[in-house]
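USER: Write out one fold?

ASSISTANT:
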Amino acid sequence: MAENRDEQLTDEELAQLQLAEENENAVDRLVQELGCPTRRMRQFAARVLHLLAERDPQRDVPCVPALIEALDRPEAQTRWEALDALAALATTCPEQLGDAFEGAETALFDEISSTLRYAAFRLLCLWGATSVERSREAWPILDEAIQCYHATSSIATCSVACTSLARARSTPRSPTSSHCALSSMPRTARAVISRPVRARFAKCLLNVLAWNSPKRRSVLALRNLTTPKTRSNRLWRTM
């Protein structure tokens, strides 16, 4: 898997990543470049720090303050690379990511970049899944984002990210239905989610799993025409 990722990197990215893994001074230089006046240098530095966070989270932990500060940069790519780097550190040092909440919230409702919105959504899901208090802080803003973007194409990827919050500290077995997914949702998130909100979350899961696909609807419609209307069948159609 690591080799496949390396194949997708440019020669410059790979060279800087290897240098950062071996030399702390190279990491310090990348941190300084996050605040430089050149847009392309900021984007490149954020990209390499993101890759470093995925490979070696501990080496990227000292960069957290600079990554949070990078969430105020004007260009979208620097911000989403910084968000992805912070997401990779969410389980390593969640207590240090609280200051990223404001920048992530701003990115979550960016009207231009869907990539930026998704990066913010994913960070808040991963960070919120680390404790009860953090889930209580993260979920209201995630719920608002779901309501805002439920009719857009990005809702499917956001719903996938949301399952990380639902499955935190759950059993290893993957849920086989939206009901199981919600029931396996830990007290971290479930305790602060009202029934209407859980219903919206379940609908998102249905869309992601393609249970509400046109093919399924046509099959159900045919079944309604050919199956006697017994009580059990009526219950099945309402599920």
Notes: Confidence is low (pLDDT under 50) at residues 169-193, 208-212, 229-239. The longest helix spans residues 132-149. The chain has 16 helices and no strands. The CA atoms of residues 3 and 114 lie 28 Å apart.
